[in-house]
Structure formats: structure tokens, C-alpha cells
Inverse folding.
């Protein structure tokens, strides 16, 4: 079975950090790009960060650039999202997803999604 298992969400104060993980199984990890998307209450889902697994090329949503870092561990078939200097507006459910192509933040390209993990940034 193709699966993406997201984890690592939680509640943190503004300025804090969290690291999300997305464990992939059931497919050839290196053939894909992996991305993190998020959806806040009442808002549309948006692409946050992507990485082309075999090259390591990355791209970020402008509002997280310099604060978030996406990375991958090919041996572990896992993608990470290190989130620093978190802001209340980063509060959302975060999803990982895969795309058979190079890094892109266009969500319609993605065919398999993880279950989502809640990130809450608040005092």
C-alpha cells in the first residue's frame, strides 16, 4: 500500500519551533517530489514547501521562506519540515503529499496525501 504518515504537530508559543515528519512507504521515494501543504480554518489549502527527492531542489511559499526548511532522508523514506519562528498565522492542519515530477507547489499535481497533523501557534 502507498502510504504517507505525517506526525510532529502540536501547540507552540509564537517564536517557537516544531519539526514535522512524513514517512513514506509503498513506492519508490526517489522518483517523486514531496511537499507540505496547510489549511487553516476558513481558508483554502496552500502549498508551503516542496522538495525534489533525488536532487534536493526546494521551493517555498514566500511567507515561510527563511523560517521553514524542508529536507529529506532517502534512507528512511522520510521528509521533514523544520518550522522556526512560528507565528499565529502558521496555525493550520499540515499535510504531506507526493507528486511524480519535480518540486511544485501546485496541489492539483499531487496524487497521494497524508492524514494531516495539527499545528497551533498561540500563547
Amino acid at each position: 500500500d502507498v502510504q504517507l504518515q505525517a506526525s510532529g504537530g502540536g501547540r507552540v508559543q509564537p517564536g517557537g519551533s516544531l519539526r514535522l515528519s512524513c514517512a513514506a512507504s509503498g513506492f519508490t521515494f526517489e522518483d517523486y517530489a514531496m511537499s507540505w501543504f496547510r489549511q487553516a480554518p476558513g481558508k483554502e489549502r496552500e502549498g508551503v514547501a516542496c522538495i525534489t527527492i533525488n536532487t534536493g531542489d526546494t521551493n517555498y511559499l514566500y511567507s515561510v521562506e527563511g523560517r521553514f526548511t524542508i529536507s529529506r532522508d532517502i534512507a528512511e523514506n522520510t521528509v521533514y519540515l523544520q518550522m522556526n519562528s512560528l507565528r499565529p498565522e502558521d496555525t493550520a492542519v499540515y499535510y504531506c503529499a507526493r507528486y511524480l515530477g519535480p518540486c511544485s507547489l501546485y496541489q492539483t499535481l499531487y496524487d497521494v496525501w497524508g492524514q494531516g497533523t495539527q499545528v497551533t501557534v498561540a500563547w
About this structure: The longest strand covers residues 18-25. The radius of gyration is 13 Å. The chain has a mean pLDDT of 97.
